Amino acid sequence: MNRLPNAKRAAILAMLVDGTSMRSIARLAEVSINTVAKLLNDVGEAAKACHDERVRGIAGRRRIECSQTWAFSYAITGEAMPRESRNTWTFAAIEADSKLIVSYLVADKSRQTTAVLLGDVRSRLTENPELSANDLSGYRGSRAQAAGAGQTGPSDVAPSIPANSEKRRLEKHVAMINLYALHYNYCRVHPALEATPAMEAGLDEVVREPGWIVDLVDARAAKPNRPKRYRKRTGNSN
Questions:
Q1: What are the DSSP calls for 110-177, one per residue?
Q2: ∠ at Cα 126 (175, 116), nearest 5°?
Q3: Full residue range of the structural domain in which residue 183 is found
Q4: Does some domain include residue 115?
Q5: Which of 95, 99, 107, 234 fits a disulfide with 113 by CB distance 3.0 to 4.6 angstroms?
Q6: Is 227 inside any structural domain?
Q7: pTM (2 d.p.)
Q8: With contact defined as beta carbons under 8 Å apart, do 94 and 101 qualify?
Q9: Segment holding 64, helix H or strand E
Q10: DSSP 8-state class, residue 189
Q11: Are 214 and 13 contacting, i.e. CB atoms less than 8 angstroms apart?
């Protein structure tokens, strides 16, 4: 399978997290837009797996700030498009001191979503957190529901997108959120901290580069299914 050099893939990831459009990246990197899309999908899966594995066991009583951001994954208006594809909410739980994104998910705006978010936050901390939110009313009934953390995870809640075209757009949006969260936590030095949030939270010791994310993708890639031993050829060949 053909694969772009690591340096070029790292450059593409750097442009993605800076907000460059996929078509612009394809033109600047001189690759197909399908190549950029495939890389984004692979990176999204690797970034999510890395976050789930590494952002855990955060010690101490932490102050968690919850917020939500609206976006659309298909179009803002239009009578012909599915109603479910108009609104997409990204929920984030950020530790106030280290600025670490502890948990996040893309889903609809509902009490079930906030319960899943808080349950996931609780599973990543060693102690119950002090919670604050810009819209606390949406979290009040969810705190008790999330007390039994571990019952559900962020992957259990997502907008219902029936058509393939809308689903593909949503998948790209989620993959980009996964990439951004990992890059923010491990690669981007926070100006107020002079360190990455992961370093400030005690989860890492160095500032990571986009090439590190490329290595995560390669580590998850399927290995070639080659035989360990080859049968010796017999007979004469003409």
A1: SHHHHHHHHHHHHHHBSSPPEEEETTTHHHHHHHHHTSSTTS--GGG------SHHHHHHHHHHHHHH
A2: 40
A3: 6-220
A4: yes
A5: 107
A6: no
A7: 0.81
A8: yes
A9: strand 63-71
A10: P
A11: yes
Please give the Cα distance from 114 to 103 (Å, whole number). Answer: 11
Question: One-letter amino acid identity for 110?
Answer: S
In a domain, 236, yes or no: no
Q: How many structural domains compose the chain?
A: 1
Residues 167 and 5 sit within 8 Å (Cβ to Cβ) = no
DSSP assigned state of 2: -
User: Could you give the residue ranges of the DSSP H alpha helices within the chain?
Assistant: 6-17, 22-29, 33-54, 111-124, 137-145, 164-186, 197-200, 210-220
Residue reference for tokens 């992961």: 198
How confident is the prediction along the chain (238 residues), in pLDDT tens digits per residue?
578 999 999 999 999 999 999 999 999 999 999 999 999 999 999 999 999 999 999 999 999 999 999 887 665 555 555 555 567 889 999 999 999 999 999 988 888 888 999 999 999 999 999 988 876 555 665 555 444 444 445 654 444 444 455 667 888 999 999 999 999 999 999 999 999 999 999 999 999 999 999 999 999 886 666 666 666 666 565 5
